[in-house]
Write a structure and sequence with these properties.
Elements (H helix, E strand, L loop, with lengths): L11 H4 L6 E5 L4 E7 L5 E8 L1 H4 L7 H23 L8 E7 L3 H18 L3 E5 H10 L9 E6 L4 E8 L2 E7 L5 H11 L6 H9 L24 H12 L13 H30 L3 E5 L6 H14 L2 E4 L14 H7 L19
Parallel strand pairs: 1-4, 4-5, 6-9, 9-10
Antiparallel strand pairs: 1-2, 2-3, 6-7, 7-8
The protein binds 5'-O-[(R)-(carboxyoxy)(hydroxy)phosphoryl]adenosine and zinc ion.
Length: 359
């Protein structure tokens, strides 16, 4: 439970209790989250139950474990968001849920729960694209419209660039052809025994290291497209740690300085490519703004490098607020945009895990 989140300290929400609010549900990966959001975007209540402790010993999210944990947590999480808001079910305008992309089992728990509540409470159902919601978190941070813009979603499951002309009109420009950037952070952290999720740990070690100590590959950085590839980088880090042929990571005793240098050089390689492709996309789309969301958008070095790029290339940078970078239900406020357009989902809606590219 976290009261210090945007909207909650804002007295606007007290004046707006009469507004028909919506309930948003998020369960795409390993965070079970719900929020109650007024129709002006003010957050009336929210709750996120993280599963980090459950997945830590595996060094990554285990889909079956995640789905079962969602099942246990989803009703208490919704209860908490609702009671924090002071809103009753009868006062809700709609129930929104992230139906794509994500882990099939995890998505199913949220969707079945949302459908059940929609039927029981006689409320319309709204489907939210989780990646579009990550980008909408950027719009929630500023008062002016961020559109048109280039949007970068950089998370544990996705690394994708879009040309966005509105919160709901996004043209896919390109994305990773193998691992997502966050996944690479998690794998490198696992190799170095830094725990899970790996991003924050790698970033902490990186701040003490030399970014030029290892010359890791910047895959596809010069390719004339908006695609990414991080699996070669992951392998390069692996070879730098153990050398080819050796696989026994748990027995490795990597000196602290080497760990810091590996993290710093790895982070620099990921971020150089992300920044270069964003610059290319901003130029190609002739946009004057870049928005960035998803878990990896919490990375301090990425935020810093993008800010430098924005100044040098004369575009405005809007990164999602720190608390809205990793998965949460507040960014499900994008459902309000769908309601304004009259876009509701039918009760035979199914999940779209989306193993293919191009979401
Ligand atoms: O958006 P998110 O919560 O879940 C997905 O939709 O995938 O992103 C989680 C990812 C994890 O891979 C995590 O390691 C990464 O975001 N992450 C970071 C940082 N904080 C979280 N990566 C780099 N630096 C960070 N500070
Ligand atoms: Zn996410």
């Amino acid at each position: 439970r976290d009261d210090d989140v945007i909207g909650l300290s804002n007295p606007r929400h007290l004046a707006n209790v009469w507004c028909m609010p919506i309930l948003t549900i998020e369960s795409t990966c390993d965070e079970t989250a719900a929020a109650v959001i007024a129709n002006d975007g003010a957050v009336l209540g929210q709750c996120v139950a993280t599963q980090e402790a459950l997945h830590e010993r595996f060094g990554g999210v285990v889909p079956e474990v995640a789905a079962r944990a969602h099942l246990e947590r989803i009703l208490p999480v919704i209860d908490m968001a609702m009671s924090q808001s002071g809103i009753t079910a009868g006062q809700l305008d709609a129930v929104a849920v992230a139906d794509r992309p994500g882990l099939a089992g995890s998505l199913l728990v949220g969707l079945v729960c949302a459908k059940t509540l929609a039927v029981a409470w006689k409320k319309p159902l709204v489907a939210v694209n989780h990646l579009h919601a990550h980008l909408y978190a950027c719009q929630m941070a500023v008062t002016e419209s961020v559109y048109p813009c280039v949007g970068l979603v950089v998370s544990g499951g996705h690394t994708s660039l879009y040309h966005c002309t509105s919160p709901l009109d996004l043209a896919y420009l390109g994305g990773t052809i193998d691992d997502a950037a966050g996944e690479a952070f998690d794998k490198v952290a696992a190799m170095l025994g830094l725990g899970f999720p790996g991003g924050p740990a790698v970033s902490k070690w990186a701040n003490r290291g030399d970014r030029n100590a290892y010359s890791f590959p910047r895959s596809m950085v010069h390719d004339d497209n908006f695609d990414f590839s991080f699996s070669g980088l992951k392998t390069a880090v692996r070879y730098a740690i153990v050398g080819p042929g050796h696989q026994d990571f748990p027995k490795l005793d990597v000196p602290e300085k080497t760990k810091a240098d590996l993290c710093a050089s790895f982070e620099a390689a990921v971020i150089d490519v992300l920044v270069a492709k964003c610059e290319r996309a901003v130029a190609k789309c002739r946009c004057r703004r870049l928005i960035v969301g998803g878990g990896v958008a919490a990375n301090g070095y990425l935020r810093e490098q993008l800010q430098t790029s924005a100044v040098e290339n004369d575009y405005t940078l809007t990164v999602a607020p720190m608390k809205l970078c990793t998965d949460n239900a507040i960014m499900g406020a994008i459902a309000l945009e769908k309601i304004r357009r009259g876009e509701f989902a039918s009760l035979d809606l199914d999940v779209t895990p989306g193993l293919q590219r191009g979401f």
